[in-house]
Each structure stands twice: as structure tokens, then as C-alpha cells.
Specification:
The protein is α/β, with parallel strands linked by helices. It is built from 13 helices and 17 strands. It folds into 2 domains: 156 residues, Aspartate Aminotransferase, domain 1; 229 residues, Aspartate Aminotransferase, domain 2 (3-Layer(aba) Sandwich), CATH 3.40.640. A 7-stranded mixed sheet has the order 4-12-11-10-7-5-6, with helices on both faces. Strands 1-2-3-15 form a 4-stranded mixed sheet. A 4-stranded antiparallel sheet has the order 13-14-17-16. A hairpin with a 5-residue loop joins strand 8 and strand 9. Helix 3 runs antiparallel to helix 10. The longest helix has 25 residues. The two termini are 34 Å apart.
Amino acid sequence: MAHELNRHTFDAVMVPNYAPGAVIPVRGEGSHIWDQDGRSYIDFAGGIAVNSLGHCHPELVKVLTDQANKLWHLSNVWTNEPALKLAQQLCQMTFADKVYFANSGAEANEAALKLARRYAVDKYSADKHQIIAFDNAFHGRTFFTVSVGGQPKYSEGFGPVPEGISHLPFNDIQALEKAISHHTCAVIMEPIQGEAGILPADPDFIRRARELCNQYNALLIFDEIQTGVGRTGELYAYMRTGVKPDILTTAKALGGGFPIGAMLCTDEVAQAMVVGTHGSTYGGNPLGCRIASRVLELVNDRDLLDGVRERHLMFMDGLDELNDRHHLFSDIRGHGLLIGCQLNDQWQGQARDLLVHAQDAGVMVLIAGPNVLRFAPSLIIPPDDIHTGLERLGQAMVQFLHTRTEEA
């Protein structure tokens, strides 16, 4: 069936920085999505770890509708009740004393990095500006965050990058010990590197990073854009490490699908961001904050978080069983409902092809680089949907192997 708006429309009117597939979803409910032709899919992608409570959760729809009939936007000349409540919740639920609201993860990280440098300059000296980040990290697509991210393909072609940024091997304690100094203002890391292929930070690495930051008066920044808001079975992944950061960034799942981000920090660090230092036109708008507030109320529940861990085991058992049959993966890893399947040597570079076969079989998955299939479904995905989705993934794996056999 031909549709007036289709994949060709994208090519005609959209900047070609994305390469979406031909399927255009038009409706979602829970962990199910329907396309323009009425075909249904099990959603194991979750909008890249965004739809934390699935599609069109009735509580979020109710809150959005209620707030939409009250107040959508205010400039930051004033504040608003939903923003104050959300900031209060985040402080009560985490290590943080203060909160800054943005619209996205990249903007939250931009604020965090600017704050780290401003704090170091104000308290120490202008020479204390080095930011230590890690290879293959991803922190956003603004010019500053893409420069701090450890994937050159995203920063190349835009001219000189900001100075004072060092990239080290992830999980390499010796490299960090050698690189950090009194010129370092911050160390930024993801507790689990997402875009790099779902690579968890070693507990010893995280602890040593905290010790070194304390020793050299540097700030420890946790980028929890992808791991936050229940994704790992704790409200934030740092809570399972025994280490507290000085700054934490959160977005994606925070709004359950509505765009919102936040930077959380200690009171001491926050004092460097004085009036006029930074800002955002839409950051902290009443509509986004009201929705995020309800997301936190629903997610920060021990039964729900324990359910994430239970669903993790369902996924791992199911993926192990599929791999025993089809032998596609060399490693299956992750925490909670952020899981990566590393393709073995025979199938390197073909993760996207497997994604396409999965879509054809009726299950939506993600990739994390060319060699890793990624799963980031709703935190409350029903067990029946897990089983059905994995059955469809198994069909996709069979078709993937069949196609490769024919090509050979």
C-alpha cells in the first residue's frame, strides 16, 4: 500500500544525517508498535533506552494531558512548580544537592563540562582545565561533547576541537594514574559505555577514578544518560558501585519519551554556576518536568527495579539459548535492561544486517557499533512480550544465516 508520507519523503525534505529504514511506526502501546500498514512489532529498542515505561503509558498520558491544559512554557525569568518538584525529587533520590534542567543528554553533558571547567578556574587556576575522557565513549553531539566523546568519526570534519581533552583506554587504571594531574579539572565516564558496545566499567576502575579525583582535586562526572532512571535495576547505575560522583547527567528515560535532561551536582560545585553563566530557553519547562516527575515516582519503586533484574535474567537465558542454537555471538553482556550481544569473528560488521532481519521478523532491536546487537526495552515489558520477541529474533537469526549461506 502506498502512503503519501514515506521513506522517499525523508530523502526529499530531511537533512541526510540519518538513514532510517522504510518502516514508519504510527502508533505504540506498551511494548508494541504498529506501522503505517498495521503490522505490529515487539519493541526491544525503547527509543534507544528512552521509553522507560513503554509507549503511551496511561499514567504519563494522564499527566501530560492535565499539564497541557494548565501551562506549557515559562521563560527562566520565572520558575514553575513542576520544575521545583522534579528538582526536589532528584535531590532526595540521589547524592545531589542542586539540579540544572536541559532538553537532552548532550545539553546536560555540555552543562556538566562547562561547570567543571568553571569550578576549577574559580577555585584553583586557569591552568586546571584538562578533561579526561575515554576511548569509544559517547557524550552527545554538541561540538564540546562530541570532542570529549571518544569516537573520532563524530568529531572529524568540523575543524579544530577544543583544547585540553585527553582520551584514555576504558577500564585501564594504569593509564588513568599516569594521565591525571593537578591540571585535571574532571574525569567523565559512562558506568556502562553504551554506543561502544555495552561495556561496563570495572568496579575497581570506578573506585580508583574516585580516589584519583579526590587526590588531584578533580571532579568525577558520571554520564548516566543511557544507564539512568532504572535501566540497570537501580535508579542510577552509580548506586550499585559504592561511588558517588560530583556531577551526574541524566536524560533519555527521565521523560519516558518526552524530551528533558538534567545535570545533578553537589552544592559546592553548583556555586560556580552563577547567574548568567549558562542557560536554556526550554530547559525546565513545566510540561517536561511534570511528566518526568511522574516517571520518577513510578520507576523509583523497589518492586519495579527488582522486576528489571528479573527481566534481565529472562533476556539472558533466552539469548543464551538462541546462541546455543545459532552460534552468532561471542559475548552477551550488560546490566538490567541494557544488554549487548557481540557478534563473533565470522560475522564482524554485520550487526545492522541482523537488525534488518529482526525488523522483518517483527521485533525492533538496536545496534551499538557495527558488531553489537543492543537491547534497551521498556523496564516493565511483559514476560510474554520478551518470549515472543526472542522467538522472532530467533527467526531473524535463522534468516540471517540462510541469507549468508546463499551469498556464499
